[in-house]
Amino acid sequence: MASENAKAVAREVAKNLRNSKKVDLGKILREKGYSQSVSEAPQNVTQTKSYQEAIEPFLDKMIKERDRILDAMEQKDLTKVQYQHLSDVADKMIKNIQLLGGRPTENNKLEIEWLKS
Q1: Would the pLDDT of 1 be above 50?
Q2: DSSP SS3 for 116
């Protein structure tokens, strides 16, 4: 049986994102009946099949919107300000999509090697 609590968490996360509110997973988890220890490790809920199934329709909409933004960035007649705004929005969308999909938003293993010319 699918976890109704995990589905409720997914709905609340989507609601907050739609309303441009901060997503505090720990707080949302506690409000939906999870213990303090679970709220400190939200991946235990966000990586469940129930949560992923519930968040998937919203995630699909975000992916379509991200693609629309990236397409708009290819226009040749954009001003520098318009391009910067689209770039900022795309960055936020990409990170939110990664978070909702249960993927990390940063690469801690990135190594940069400085080359001497």
Answers
A1: no
A2: coil
